[in-house]
Automatic annotation (TrEMBL):
Residues 167-228 form the tRNA nucleotidyltransferase/poly(A) polymerase RNA and SrmB- binding domain. Residues 22-141 form the Poly A polymerase head domain. Keywords: ATP-binding, Magnesium, Metal-binding, Nucleotide-binding, Nucleotidyltransferase, RNA repair, RNA-binding, Transferase, tRNA processing. This is CCA tRNA nucleotidyltransferase. It comes from Neopusillimonas maritima. The keyword tRNA processing applies. Pfam families: PolyA_pol, PolyA_pol_RNAbd. InterPro entries: CCA_bact, NT_sf, PolA_pol_head_dom, PolyA_RNA-bd, tRNA_CCA-adding_enzyme. Gene3D superfamilies: Beta Polymerase, domain 2, cca-adding enzyme, domain 2. Belongs to the tRNA nucleotidyltransferase/poly(A) polymerase family.
Amino acid sequence: MVHPVPTLPVVAPDPLISDLQAYIVGGAVRDALLGLPAGDRDWVVVGATPEQMVQKGFIPVGDDFPVFLHPKTKEEYALARTERKSGRGYKGFTFYTGQDVTLEEDLYRRDLTINAIAQTPDGQLVDPLNGLADIEARVLRHIGEAFCEDPVRLLRLARFAARFTHFSIAPETLNLARRLVTDGEVDALVPERVWREVSRGLISEAPYRMFDVLAETGALQRVMPGLNFDGAARRSLQCAARRHLPLASCAALFCFSSSNPDTVLRAVKAPSHCVDYARLLPVVGAQMGAAQTADDYLALIEQCDGLRKPERFLDLVAAACCLGNQFSGVEESLSQTWAVRLDAVRAVDGGSIAKRHQGKPQAIKDAVRQARLAALAGM
């Protein structure tokens, strides 16, 4: 089905693709239909060979199947392909990219109908799977039974639920997602791929929905062993999303209720700074509310290495404000108070103090500490 869609932008003429059957596909088309900001565009080329693409100047970059970069725009152009299940996990597929593969066949191998819409350069839609109807109905729906062959699709379904907060998941799609768990396909996921999807979901509009979906399908403990995602963690993530906290803060919050938060993140190969946030957030959460004196304030700042890493310390304070209800309603003012305290401590001129106590390391250390305490006490 080809429909005129005047709301989608027409692509500027490009001589390099003028004689190719090239279509914009996937997220760029979906987001344009939803009125969301434009992201990276991906293209599918029908009826071409790898040799023809190289002759035109496209740069081959694909490992598993032919993908090329446009020499000027650097956008990705993949040859239309079909796939057949040939092993376990998300890499257990054999791809076919012959010139006889149609656009419709390529779209049919995708995960969800809303991601299986193509756009011609002149702004027309190709929508053989009625993805536009599901966008209008705000439904996340699988395309075919092959959905339950690729465990990454379960992670993506959960991530899309976190991003598109007004979309529901079709019941039959949830059933197929559960099959990915019961059939053991999710056990073939590698930690890096789990983190790639989870990290994107954590900075979505409603990150808690991702974990709700994983829990509902029985996948949560299989893909993130040791994670305890309870009501408190859910509320904390809601707070983090509302305050637009950075990824590392969200990572620390979603596993805060777990017995070993940093271990949960290490298991999925999360970046070291996210692991550090998870390790330090319990310290900040326990001590921030109890701190009453200059000694308390300085002890917490020093324990979290706030003098050398002020941005991380303030991120942790902001994340701690999302824990429980003890700081409810005063998050912004409390974060600002700690920012002022940190500035006061960092403003102490250690160099001048060292000159006054030259050659006396312990005297310098004691004098610097007293100056910092005095700065905090004088606020």
